[in-house]
Amino acid sequence: MIRTNLQLLHIIESLSEKTEAITLRNYGVGQRIIQQGQEGKSVYIIKSGIAKCFITEDNDKDYILEFLGEGELLGEIEAIRKEVAICSIEPVTPVSLYTMSNIEFMQLLKTRQDFNATVISLMATRISNSSIKSARQQLYTLSQILPQLLSALNAQQITFTKQDLSEYLGISVRSLNRLLKTT
């Protein structure tokens, strides 16, 4: 449910001690880290906290792709492709982030084999997880998915708003409330 990558976190912690090009920033709940459609100049790695990655559709409805935790990478696709942000990133808990410029990120990809391999692995895992989530949402009813989701949240001792849960499931809060009454 909440993606983490402790291997990347350890690498970036070690690198941050050796260079001033990697700094630490803090964001509060609701502060946008990355804005969909805007140019990104930085790449971030979550040191602590949880953020949501979401797409805002033309009808102004948000769809949460995933929740990101410690060691997760933000803004890498935009840095690699040199394009505007394809999604928004916003904290759901206070977050502390390692920050570096896109140029520094690309340099690390070229010069640090361990960093490069970890980033490639992280991106492959994301593709795999997105495929699995998409398949589940196609193959199972929401009444089957919701108990599994609530169980995963409970196991991780995490509470999300009904708004966030409904956006993660791609349904309205009203539909979520109806489902919660039946489970």
TrEMBL record:
GO terms for cellular component: cytosol. PROSITE patterns: CNMP_BINDING_1, CNMP_BINDING_3. It comes from the Bacteria. InterPro entries: cNMP-bd_CS (IPR018488), cNMP-bd_dom (IPR000595), cNMP-bd_dom_sf (IPR018490), Env_Response_Regulators (IPR050397), RmlC-like_jellyroll (IPR014710). Residues 13-109 form the Cyclic nucleotide-binding domain. One of its GO terms (molecular function) is DNA-binding transcription factor activity. This is Cyclic nucleotide-binding domain-containing protein. It comes from Chitinophaga oryziterrae. The lineage of its organism: Bacteria, Pseudomonadati, Bacteroidota, Chitinophagia, Chitinophagales.
